[in-house]
Design brief:
The chain is an all-alpha fold. The chain has a single domain, classed as N-utilizing Substance Protein B Homolog, Chain A, CATH 1.10.940.10. It contains seven helices and no strands. Helix 2 (30-38) packs antiparallel against helix 3 (47-62) and helix 5 packs parallel to helix 7. The longest helix is centred in the middle third of the chain and has 16 residues, at 47-62. It is globular.
Length: 142
């Protein structure tokens, strides 16, 4: 298989999958799960893309408590315990990008979160994601 540089969207989708996987694995097992995921021979990606995915996924998983606190603070009438795992993984990724990733504009983080919700979530997921992220932006003045 040839190695290629992944698009930003593809990088983000791989990170989302790993963050989603963390919901089903003990966090102590995630480094091994991430390694296996990235070593999949079907994954056609260059070393820099794989390194980016691994670093960002690990950072999001390590900051899960902080990210959940932000989500719980601004998700009116919702909390992370009641959210579907797909939506929760999308929120964690988006909030991480909005707060910690200076290379990604807030509007891009929101748009990409909505696109992930369209692809992986139930029908009402995109508007749910968009609404809560918009509230976070408004309240945190991002």
């Amino acid at each position: 298989m040839s190695e290629k540089k992944l698009s930003r969207r593809s990088l983000r989708e791989n990170i989302f999958i790993l963050v989603f996987m963390s919901e089903f694995n003990d966090h102590s097992m995630m480094p091994e799960q991430i390694r296996k995921f990235l070593e999949d021979p079907e994954r056609e990606a260059d070393a820099a893309s794989l390194e980016y995915i691994e670093k960002k996924a690990n950072d999001i998983i390590a900051r899960e408590e902080e990210l959940d606190e932000v989500i719980n603070t601004y998700a009116e009438k919702w909390n992370t315990a009641r959210m579907g795992r797909v939506e929760l993984a999308i929120f964690r990724l988006a909030v991480y990008e909005m707060i910690h990733d200076e290379d990604i504009p807030v509007s891009v983080a929101i748009n990409e979160a909505v696109e992930l919700a369209k692809k992986y979530g139930p029908d009402d997921s995109p508007s749910f994601i968009n609404g809560i992220l918009a509230n976070i932006v408004r309240e945190m003045k991002l």
